[in-house]
Write a structure and sequence with these properties.
The complex is a heterodimer.
Chain A lengths: L1 H30 L2 H18 L2 H23 L2 H23 L6 H17 L2
Helix pairs in contact in A: 1-3, 1-4, 4-5
Chain B lengths: L2 H28 L7 H6 L4 H23 L2 H7 L2 H12 L7 H18 L17 H10 L1
Helix pairs in contact in B: 1-3, 1-5, 5-6
The chains are: A mainly alpha, B mainly alpha.
Chain lengths: 126, 146
């Protein structure tokens, strides 16, 4: 039963973390190259541009949901199950979500990279 | 990709590793913190390891946002996953934990993944590009896209 709770937490963490990453990546693409913006307008210009992007706050909110579900997940399951399982699932989910929502062209090279890293993270849990 | 951009990616990796390690070190001082002990969790901020850990994680967030402003999500995530490897090395050296052989195999797979993505292009979506500011790199991509 506890195991079921742990996997439910892993599912919620993966979903929230992927949503957060996609929203933050989308926001920062709209903000534009932060380095160039800093050079032309200073830190203030960077902050103002980021704070004017609503999806940035939604992304931070989703990240907070992921963080608190991780805390709950850790009270139901083992550290060595919850952290690597959610981290490696998030790598694969992000590759799918980036392709669908961010229109990134996830070629063979990036699929291979995401899969290798996800498998590596899962192995490190053993 | 310029040197500055590689430094930002290295910053994402380093700050997340050091931040997590210092938080873990600080939370060990406090003993088993739990959600039933909210005041204990709030007081954790007063622990110097936790304080520096939080500052480093803020630096991580800033460099992560910077990286996402000029590179794809599917590039940044694998490119900075060396932090998992570095956590294992810190656990070995700093906390004297034994590292089993399956974990070394995991480290090797992550390193291979990083190598695969880091040698490829950092951005593939050309829709956000400003044609007036285009770099030779993005011109190449636009040609590929057509």
């Amino acid at each position: 039963m506890n195991n079921l709770y742990a996997w439910a937490a892993i599912a919620v963490i993966t979903l929230a973390a992927t949503t957060g990453d996609v929203l933050l990546a989308h926001s920062m693409k709209r903000v534009g190259d932060v380095g160039e913006l800093w050079q032309s307008g200073g830190l203030f210009a960077v902050m103002r541009r980021i704070l004017a992007t609503p999806t940035f706050f939604l992304g931070v909110l989703a990240m907070a949901v992921a963080f608190y579900s991780l805390l709950f997940g850790l009270s139901w399951g083992n550290l060595s199950l919850v952290v690597p399982a959610s981290a490696s699932l998030t790598f694969v989910a992000n590759a799918v979500a980036a392709r669908i929502f961010l229109h990134e062209r996830v070629g063979r090279r990036r699929w291979l990279a995401a899969t290798l890293v996800a498998a590596g993270v899962a192995l490190m849990a053993m | 990709m310029t040197l500055r951009k590689y430094l930002v990616l290295a910053g994402v990796t380093l700050f997340s590793t050091l931040g997590d390690s210092l938080l873990a070190r600080g939370m060990k001082d406090l003993g088993g913190a739990s959600l039933h002990n909210i005041p204990g969790l709030l007081l954790a901020i007063l622990n110097p390891y936790v304080t520096i850990g939080i500052v480093l994680l803020l630096a991580f967030f800033a460099s992560y946002m910077s990286a996402l402003s000029w590179a794809d999500l599917t590039y940044v995530l694998p490119a900075t996953s060396l932090s998992y490897v570095m956590v294992a090395i810190i656990a070995r050296i700093g906390f004297h934990e034994e590292i089993p052989s399956t974990r070394w195999l995991g480290i090797a797979l992550i390193a291979a993944g990083v190598g695969f993505v880091a040698t490829g292009p950092s951005t593939t979506d050309v829709r956000h590009e400003d044609p007036l500011r285009s770099t030779p790199e993005s011109n190449d991509l636009r040609l590929n896209h057509e």
